[in-house]
Specification:
With about 350 residues, the chain is mainly beta. It is about 5% helix and about 50% strand. The protein contains two helices and 17 strands. A hairpin with a 5-residue loop joins β14 and β15. The relative contact order is 0.11.
Length: about 350
């Protein structure tokens, strides 16, 4: 990565990426260019293009290193990927104080991938690698043929009451007392540059950070959406949720910790809600022999509703700031009122 910064806080960044598959003997690469041209308005333009490997969920909820560990040691390949030849243009800007716009235009050719190796450190007769086409509750077959798509993605986010400090070359956001809301349109335009797909997906959500004083702080996020039309779409374009089946927790708000990655992906209306509460020193500071360790308690609730899953809940309680950086959560999940699974998640929590 190369970054060039200027005295007025403008900068541009060039990020080339190259990867090679030793089993399929194939090079893939892409180039990412980004220019931050107006620090007062958080404005940037960007371009990325090339041929690369992508997860079916564009949010990439599973880190490749986590999947490598599970593949090599446990013979479990959770990562589901495809090859994409694409070019994308991006622009983001603060239109007015607290009103942010992000737009993307993308053309892509999507190529399905098959496993080319089943190597693991230890072969388990009761397990075998699963294909790159995962099981799903709504459709029997999630595989797709090679196709092309022209995509438009437009997002508006409003942070009412946003307070800021303005300097000669920069703008600093301080705080706000109100939740932020957003609306997003994702659409495939048919017959443009050979596009084979045609759909429009609309979603919206809200997020707010709470401060409860001595009791701690919390973060809440809720999102709902669905397809306005779906004349033709692939499983890649379903609404996917950020699940997790590994012991490695990714504790950003909006993530599930026990949910399957693609089992409940949907082409129908959905709702998801998340709340996380950090007790800070409210609990452990009252216990003398734990006060000096400066560990803190944390709890979480995650909820999902889709057409094929009426109710899915996760409840978690954990400890963070162990040795200042570690976090451990103990979680349980319920689907349709029945206990589904439990688990421990380890991660970083400053």
């Amino acid at each position: 990565r190369y970054t060039k910064r200027f005295e007025d806080f403008r900068y541009y960044r060039v990020t080339p990426e190259l990867r090679y598959g030793f089993s399929n003997q194939r090079f893939n690469g892409r180039l990412n260019l980004r220019y931050y041209y107006n620090p007062h308005r958080f404005a940037s333009i960007g371009f990325v293009g090339g041929r690369f490997i992508e997860q079916l969920n564009q949010d990439s909820p599973l880190q490749p290193i986590d999947n490598s560990i599970y593949t090599l040691f446990l013979e479990k390949n959770y990562l589901k990927i495809y090859e994409k030849l694409y070019i994308r243009f991006r622009h983001s800007i603060e239109l007015a104080n607290g009103l942010y716009f992000t737009g993307n235009l993308e053309w892509a050719q999507r190529n399905p991938l098959n496993n080319t190796t089943d190597y693991s450190f230890r072969d388990r007769s009761e397990r075998e690698f699963t294909p790159n086409f995962p099981d799903n509750q709504e459709i029997d077959d999630t595989s797709f043929e090679q196709h092309q798509v022209s995509l438009v993605n437009l997002k508006l986010r409003w942070q009412p009451g946003q307070k800021y400090i303005r300097r000669p070359y920069r703008k600093f956001i301080t705080k706000t007392e109100y939740p932020s809301v957003w609306v997003e349109l994702r659409a495939a335009i048919p017959d443009v540059f050979g596009s084979d797909l045609n759909f429009q997906h609309l979603s919206g959500g809200v997020r707010h950070d709470f401060n409860f004083g001595l009791v701690g702080s919390g973060i809440i996020m809720a999102e709902s959406g669905g397809f306005v039309s779906k004349d033709s779409l692939s499983f890649v374009d379903f609404k996917h949720f950020n699940g997790n089946r590994t012991i490695f927790g990714h504790f950003e708000i909006g993530n599930f910790q026990l949910l399957d990655y693609y089992q409940y992906s949907t082409a129908k209306p959905y709702f998801q809600g998340h709340y996380e509460h950090h007790f800070n020193g409210f609990i452990f500071n009252k216990i003398p022999f734990l006060r000096r360790a400066r560990i803190q308690a944390v709890s979480s609730i995650n909820f999902l509703h889709t057409d094929s899953l009426e109710s899915y809940w996760e409840l978690g309680i954990g400890i963070e700031h162990i040795f200042k950086i570690l976090r451990v959560d103990f979680l349980n999940s319920w689907a349709e009122g029945s206990h589904q699974r439990n688990g421990i998640r380890l991660g970083i929590g400053f």
